[in-house]
Amino acid sequence: MASSSKLGRRRNVTTWPIMSSTFWAAVLLTSLLVIYCGQLAAGTCEIVTLDRDSSQPRRTIARQTARCACKKGQIAGTTRARPACVDALIVRSRQWCEMTPCLDDEGCDLLVNHSGWTCTQPGGRVKTTTVS
């Protein structure tokens, strides 16, 4: 009688881990999809929309929307012509050039009313960015 009860337990023991591992694998995959598909890593940004308007001669107007997951004390900004998390004090004080928004070979100048900045390339081409 003891041997038959041991066999019964062993059958349950061998089938339970198979069901359990399948269940936990499904739970793990589902949670990974939820975590990684909808969220950004802390301190990173991604471009959500990018619209370009070249209807005017010698002028292109680009509008970009970025989604950022910034750390405490940071806010969405621009570093080296890409969206990035920057110190919130830079944005509050509107000292845009402190966040290094231009590429390495470009010069940065604030607009007169501090509503944005210009990046001047060595060849003289000027890119103007306004903040809205």
Automatic annotation (TrEMBL):
Q: Which UniProt keywords apply?
A: Signal
* UniProt cross-references to PANTHER family, sorted A to Z: CHEMOKINE-LIKE PROTEIN TAFA-5, CHEMOKINE-LIKE PROTEIN TAFA-5-RELATED
One Pfam family named in its UniProt record: TAFA
This chain's source organism reads Oncorhynchus kisutch
State the Gene Ontology BP annotations: G protein-coupled receptor signaling pathway
Q: Output this protein's name.
A: TAFA chemokine like family member 5
Instruction: Classify the source by domain of life.
Output: Eukaryota
> Record's family?
Belongs to the TAFA family.
The taxonomy runs: Eukaryota, Metazoa, Chordata, Craniata, Vertebrata
**GO cellular component terms attached to this protein's record:** extracellular space
The keyword Signal is annotated on this UniProt entry: yes
An example molecular function term from Gene Ontology annotations: G protein-coupled receptor binding
InterPro entries with a match to the protein in the record: Chemokine-like_TAFA, TAFA-5
Gene that produces this protein: TAFA5
